Amino acid sequence: MINFTVGPVQSSDAVRAIGAEQVPYFRTPEFSEVMLENERLVLSFAQAPAGSRAVFLTGSGTAAMEAAVMNLLTQADKAIVINGGSFGHRFAELLGIHRIPYDEIRLEPGRTLRPGQLDSYAGKGYTSLLVNVGETSTGVLYDMGMIAGFCRREGMFLIADAISTFLADEFDMAALGAGAMLTGSQKALACPPGVSVVALSPEGVARAMSAPRKCMYLDLRDALVNGERGQTPFTPAVGTLRQINTRLREIEAAGGAPSERARIAAIAADFRSKIKELPFAIFSDRLSNAVTPLRPLTAPAYDIFTTLKDEYGIWVCPNGGELRDTVFRVGHIGALTTADNDALIAAFNDMRRRGLI
Ligand SMILES: *Cc1c(COP(=O)(O)O)cnc(C)c1O
User: Of 114, 260, 293, 313, which is most buried by a Cβ count within 10 Å?
Assistant: First the structure.
C-alpha cells in the first residue's frame, strides 16, 4: 500500500517501532521529560514567541479546534470565520454550539481569500478571527501575512488552525502575531491519530488562564498548569506522545522545520511536474505543499479513488459532499518519496491505457 491521503499518513520506521513497544506508565520523571521536550520542539518549529506554551490534548484535531473556541473566546467576543470548505465550516459550527457571536466569510470552494474581502469588516468591533491556514478539503493555503496584518491593525486575536500545514508550509507564529496555533498528530507529524496540539502565545496563555471553566476534559488552564511539570490532567495517549517525540527529534536532527518543509515542498513540486500530461486540472488557486487538489476532466473523482485503492493498492484522498465526484486530493505529507510519486503516475498512466480516465 502507498498512502497519499492527508491523514493518517505514512510514518517513519523509527515511529512505527515505538508503536510496537509496550506503553509505559506515565506519572514519571522520564515521561515528563518526553512531554517537556515535545512542547519545546513544537514551539520552536512553530517559531512561537518567547513565553509561549503548548499543550497536547488526547483527541483528534477537532478537539484542539473545540478547546480553542471554548477556552480562548467568550460571549463578549465577536469573531470572524473564514469558511472556504468543510474545516472552515467546522469552526463556524463550533462557535454556534458554544454561543460565541460570529460572522463568516464564505468563499467559493477552491478560492482563496482576497484582500478586499476583509476590508468591509474593519472597524466594526470584531475581536477575533479563526482561519484554517490550509483549508485541507480544497487544498487552499490562505495568505496568512495578509490575514495577520488585518488582525494586527484591528487588534484582533488570531486563531490559526495549522493542522494540515504545520511543517508543510511556512508558519511564523511570532511574526504573524497569532494567539493560537493548532495542529494534530496524523498530518505532517506523521504519527497515528489521537493527539492534537494547541500552541499559545503569551496573550493566548493569558486568555486561557482567565477563561471561565466550561468543561473538564478540554480545559486548557488545567492542561497548562499540569504541563508546567510535563504532565497532563488525565491519562494521555502515552504511546502516541512517545511516537511524536521520536518524530520531532527526527525532524530536528534533519535540520528542523525548514528542512522538513523543503522536503515536503520538493515532493509536491515533483508530483505537480509529472501530472502535466494527465487529464486533471488543479482545483484551487493557492496551493499548500501538503496536498494537491485535482479535478479530473474525464472521469468521476470518487471512481478514481476507488479504482486506485482496489486495483493498485494506492490511496489518494477522496472528497465528500458536493465535491465527491469533482475533486480528489493527493497528499504529500508523511514518509513519501519521489519514487512513490512515480508509482502513482504509473497507475494513472495504466488507468488511461484502460480507458478509465
Ligand atoms: C485534519 C484537519 C482537522 C482535524 O480533523 P480531525 O479529523 O479531527 O483530526 C482540522 N482542520 C484541518 C485544516 C485539518 O486538515
Answer: 293
